[in-house]
Amino acid sequence: MLAKITNVDIMAEDGMIQGGELYVQNGKIAEIGTNLGRIVDIVWDGCGMTLVPGFIDLHVHGGAGYDFMDHTQEAVDAICRFHASHGTTSLLATTMTAPIAELKEVIRFYKQLCRGVGAEILGLHLEGPFIHPGYMGAQNGEWIASPSFANMKELLAFAGDGIVRMMTLAPELVEEDVFAYLQQQGILMSVGHSDVDYHGGCECIRKGVRHVTHLGNAMRPFHHRNIGIIGLIMEQPKFSFDIIVDGVHVAPEFIRLLSRICHPKQILLITDAIRAAGLGDGQYDLGGQEVIVCNGEARLRSGVLAGSLLTLDVALKNVIKYTDKSLVNAIDYLTINPASKLGIDGHKGSIKVGKDADLVLLDQELRVQATWVRGQLVYQAGDF
Predict the structure, then answer these.
(1) Does residue 197 have an active-site annotation?
(2) Rounded to two decimals, what is the model's pTM?
(3) N or C end of the chain, less CB within 10 A?
C-alpha cells in the first residue's frame, strides 16, 4: 500500500522542501519531492503545515495515569498513546530505582512485549539502582544497590536482545570491569544521580561514559574551583547530555547559555515525565513514594522535584523561546541527536528516503496536528 502526505513543508535531512509531498510504503519513506503525481491508496492533506521528524525521548517514566514500572500492556499502550499525541514517535521506557528482583521482572516483561499503540518502545532506560545516595533526587534510597560486577551481571544476564539500551549510574562508585561489561552489552552509560567532579568526568571518557542524565539535576553544581560535570560538557564536545526544558528543573538562562557554548549535537531534550503528565493537580505515586502535583510542578512531600509533567512538543517550544533558535536549528535536539546517541540514526531521526516513516505534522504555533509511527497514523487532532 502506498500513502501520501501532500501540501506540506517538509523538514527533510537535506533541507526544507516547500509545498512538498512525501510517500510512505511498508512503514518507510519511499519518496520525497514536489508534484510527483504518484497514484496512491491513501492521501493526507497537510494543509500547508510543517512535517518534521518524529520526536525521540530517551527518558520518560509515564503519563496519562500510568508508569512503565506498572509493566502491563494497558499501561504501555496508555503512555505511548499519550506521548504520541505530543509528537513522540519512539522512546525508552524508563525505570525507577527498585529491588533488583523487581527490575528483573520489569526487564522480562519488556523483553516479551508485543508491539502496542502510539509511540514505539525502543528498549529500556534503567535509571538506577546504581546511583549515589547523596544525589538520589526522587529515587527511592531504600533500594539503591552497589554497582558491583556481580549485581550488574545478575540484573542484565538474561536481558539479551538489546532490551536495555541505556543506564544512568554514578560512575565514581562503579567497579572497573563493569564499564567494559556494559559496553559489551551495547548499553549507553550515562552519568546521573552522581557526585562525580570534573576530574572524575575526565576519567569517564576513558571508561566509555560520554553522556549525562538530566543535566543540572541530581549532580554536583558548577563551582569556580571545580567546574564539575556541568563545566566538563561545556569544554568537551565528546560529552552529550539530556536536559528537562520545562522552566522548572533548570533556569531558561542556563538553557540559553548551553545553546551558545555547547556543540548543537551535544544537546538532547527529554521529558522525564511521570504518570501525572497529562493530568491535573493531585497526589500520585512514583517508585512507591507520594508525589504532590501543584501548579505544574511535581514534588515529593520533602519538596524534592519528582520528574516532570513535560511533553516533547512543549519542550521544543520552550527551547525555541529560551534560546531564540529557529525550528530548523532546534529540531535536532529531539530527533537526530537522540537517534545518533542510540546508534539508530541509520533508520530514525530525520526525514530521508529509506528511513522509518516516523513523522509529526506541526501547525504555525508548533502544535501537533498528526503523528505517524512507521507510516501508521497514530494521532490526529482533526480531520485532514
Answers:
(1) no
(2) 0.97
(3) N
